[in-house]
Specification:
Layout lengths: L1 E6 L3 H13 L2 E7 L16 H6 L5 E4 L6 H10 L3 E5 L6 H14 L3 E4 L6 H12 L5 E11 L12 H4 L3 H16 L5 E7 L11 E7 L6 E7 L1 E13 L2 E6 L11 E8 L8 E9 L4 H15 L8 H32 L1
Parallel strand pairs: 1-2, 1-3, 3-4, 4-5, 6-9
Antiparallel strand pairs: 6-10, 7-8, 8-9, 10-11, 11-12, 12-13
Helix pairs in contact: 1-8, 3-4, 4-9, 7-9
Amino acid sequence: MLRVGIIGYGKMGRIRHKAIDEIGRCQVTHIHDPFDPSLVPTGLNVVEYREILANPDVDAVFICTVNALNKKLTIEALQCGKHVFCEKPPAFCAADVEEIIEVEKRTGKVLMYGFNHRHHSAAQKMKSVATSGKFGRILWMRGRYGKSVDENYLKTWRANAELAGGGILLDQGIHMLDLFLHLGDGFDDVHAFVSNLYWNLEDIEDNVFAILRNSRTGQCASLHSTMTQWRHLFSFEVFMQKGYMVLNGLKTSSQTYGAERLVIAQNRSEAPAAKWQDEEVFEYDSDTSWLHEINMFCDALENRGNTNESDSQSALAVMKLIDKIYENDRHEASQLFNKLNIAE
């Protein structure tokens, strides 16, 4: 049985521990939490994270800490000969991920990132339909993902730009972007607006509006990622030449996004008065994404192969897109500022 250590035992560390125990393919033997060691179960706590990395009996490490430590700990763990499962985001920018990939290549260890949304049952169904070509190619996608936060958010590390690296885009929007990339062609043309109008936290955005396009295929996608959605919302729409898939709701630990309901239908008439027939509805009552993700990681460890799912190349692709969103927003703001100066 594979032996694993966990660094960081907040919400995500505990979720990963529970999933590891449920699948029964590996055993958690060591846990380090840098902020609150009292959270760690008796007998598993280690005082220093390097005790985990230096232990020859530990096969893999789960990194579940604040965002700012993900790059550093991933590189250290790989260099110590450990396989690594790290929560998103992999780092603060694409260049950081490229550094990680260089270390990964040199060590030959398995590296996987925690993009669990693509492992939800509905997302897996959508991927299989899109790949089958049953409804032709994807024309466009639209994703809306929003939650609300209160003043308690200001007391957490997520409200600290040095620890979080950004706001709602890195926290939640990254999952929707990963779904776009998981089903779509990739995007090189980006237009975006990033704002923090409500919480007014420097470098912590509370809203992102982004329009994405693949200049080769013409495929487009739009994203709204927000923490001022007072009624929690998850909506992912994929429209193809001959049909569509619409996912509303998502089964999560918070149980605040509603039922995970996927509708798939085929267009049997011509536009503009299209009629949708043979509509199929799939409802998923449980979230098995955590188990599916851990199983995939274990498969990769046992076969010593690449996961091809949520791997470092996927992480690099999504971080390149995030870089473009932030850069485009700064460019648009600079252009507006210049125009105002000229007008004056």
